[in-house]
Write a structure and sequence with these properties.
- There is one protein chain.
- With 222 residues, the protein is of the alpha/beta class.
- The protein is 50% helix and 9% strand.
- It has a domain of 126 residues: Phosphoenolpyruvate-binding domains (TIM Barrel), CATH 3.20.20.60.
- β1, α4 and β2 form a beta-alpha-beta unit.
- The longest helix is centred in the C-terminal third of the chain and has 20 residues.
């Protein structure tokens, strides 16, 4: 589902007529918080209509729904309820609803989020910025941003461990696994289920994963 920020919507034609002005859109009115709000819920209905058409009319039932930037358990329940009103009911026609794990609260309360959603996808960019307190839109401190920071990697490892303990799937979407082979190795060692890549990085990413899996097999053997 959509995860535009207010400034991004405002930059679209006519967007300024509808979007509130925020001092820090990166941690403002975005993701799940929009879906049940009067300012956007009709827009969310269109998103649900599109997913319903793809799954129910076109027959592409392998399509899952991913909810971004879901801050609380209550917010997750609200979104699930709104989706149901718009004809997308979790579990019906094998519909799975995943949530992005990109906020520290998602990691801290992973077991409770796992009771609401069917799986996780780690958003490493947002999780890193919120763990380190870095605004990714700020060029002045951009040099401090790193998904390989020890604190960020600890959050990712904890999220994978908790998802595994809860018995739900967990993946990661971010650029780091394709840019840094050691990061792919780290994810493989943690037991992640899947990793997403940009098209131009797919082959390099697969190569990095294969190397990481081979090294892990050698370590396990000894």
């Amino acid at each position: 589902m959509s995860d535009f920020k207010t400034n991004e919507y405002a930059n679209l034609i006519g967007g300024k007529d509808f979007e509130p002005k925020e001092e820090n859109p990166m941690i403002g009115f975005r993701g799940a918080s929009r879906y049940y709000n009067d300012l956007y819920k009709q827009g969310f209905k269109l998103e649900c209509d599109a997913i319903r058409k793809v799954r129910d009319e076109m027959g592409l039932t392998n399509v899952k729904v991913m909810i971004p930037f879901c801050r609380t358990i209550g917010e997750g329940n609200k979104v699930i309820a709104v989706m149901k009103r718009y004809g997308l009911e979790q579990g019906v026609n094998n519909l799975e609803v995943y949530v992005m794990a990109e906020i520290p609260s998602n990691v801290i309360l992973a077991e409770k989020f796992a009771a609401v959603f069917d799986g996780f996808s780690i958003g490493s960019n947002d999780l890193t910025q919120l763990t380190l307190g870095i605004d990714r839109d700020s060029a002045i401190i951009s040099d401090l941003f790193s998904e390989q920071n020890e604190a960020a990697k600890d959050m990712i490892a904890t999220m994978i461990r908790k998802a595994k303990a809860a018995g739900v799937k967990i993946g990661l979407c971010g650029q780091a696994p394709s840019d840094f082979p050691e990061f792919a190795s780290f994810l493989v060692e943690q037991g992640i289920d899947s990793i997403s890549f940009n098209p131009d990085a797919l082959l390099k990413g697969i190569e990095n994963i294969k190397k990481a899996e081979s090294l892990l097999m050698v370590k396990t053997a000894f």
